[in-house]
Amino acid sequence: MNSQKETKLLVLSLLLTTVLLGLGFWLLSRVSGNNLNSLLSGNNSPAPSGSTSTKVSMGEKILVTADTSPDKEAGVQAFAKGDFVTATAKLKASLAKNRNDPESLIYLNNSQAQNSKSWKIAVSVPIGGNLDVAKEILRGVAQAQDEVNRGGGINGKLLQIAIASDDNDPNQGQQVATQFVKDSSILAVVGHNSSNTSIAAAPIYQQGGLVMISPSSTAQNLSGIGSYIFRTVPSNGAFAERLANYTVKTARKTNIAICTDSKSIDTQSFRDEFIKGLVAGGGKVNSTSCDVASANFDPNTLISQFISSGADGLVLAPNVDRINKALELAAANNGKLTLFANPTLYTFKTLQVGKADVNAMVLPVPWHPTAIPGNPFPQNAVKLWGGTVNWRTATAYDATIAIAKGLQQASTRDGLQQVLHSSSFTAKGATGTIQFLPSGDRSGTAILVKVQPSSKSATGYDFVPF
């Protein structure tokens, strides 16, 4: 009897164990199988929350999936396997069909540098947050890398670039910064794009002793935030001062309505600096408040309120993700108030959508292709990409060139930081001479452009420096 009970218990125990093991293997296969299938198919599945490892690539994965092609996929797969000869050939084939793909050009240069000594830096862009902006920055980095490597590299070593996506999200930016700091082979970082993200990531770079050069963060409070933090775009102080001076002294407008973005540090910083210059020049801010991020944003009502409260000018200062809101306000304005803007509106979209609504609008910008006679960058960009580029491409190019020039003199993180801070450091870039102030800001001033009719532009309008 006891023997029979023991046998039954043993059988039940074995069955229970088998069921538990089977369930465990089934769950494991669901998780690992999905990951394995993703890898084999070449799909870039979204990273789990809090993870950034799948959002960084030297060439082993495609981050800009909008530019995927069979040749690019084959090149990336070969890169991941360490077959850099095939990777080079396939990436060249991909670029031959789509030369306006900066990710492929970066991966191509990376694959060509794999079998030689090289320097490694990184770039962080908002691929998931604003793809157009991400590609604009990547074009500048890719063009600089290509020129450096075609010229023999830096002291005989080629330049490699790791690409990361932060989606213009401060939390992701911090995670990317942490990953970059931990990778001791990375000597500097180009990024981040938005001021919100740069300000959030800056303390991590500062503590980790890793140079960060932002090509597009303009917020005033990034100035002096850390000795390892630089930027190649003028600060909002420089932009706002130039525009405020023009508004009061040249345009003769003194009651200025300002429409900003409450969710953007950049635009709030620009507003504060513009008000300082406006008041100092004898002007005043219109009493009507305007926020393009507000759920109650109503362009027609706002224009009526501006006019009834005595405004004679309107400054549009949206975040890059809400340019459409500012253009809706310009359309509602219909020429009633003289228009001014922050550098965010220095984009093809402004001309394409705004057209006559933004005619005669004046804004401060960091660069214009005709502003520096004899500078080869604009022509080289057209040859490389097949069309004109914008200011983010120019300032990203400058950030990469500044790092490359600095690495010629010092090949360590600390050494590079000291070189960039030296009063004797200069480099020739797309926007002119690159030199940094003790605050890490770019030395130099902004230029003003005005939207004017143009028969040379596909939109019928263009930005013209004056």
TrEMBL record:
Keyword Signal attributed: yes
Keywords: Signal
CDD domains: PBP1_ABC_transporter_LIVBP-like
Superkingdom, natural source: Bacteria
Leucine-binding protein domain ranges (all copies): 119-439
Family: Belongs to the leucine-binding protein family.
Protein name (record): ABC transporter substrate-binding protein
Taxon lineage: Bacteria, Bacillati, Cyanobacteriota, Cyanophyceae, Nostocales
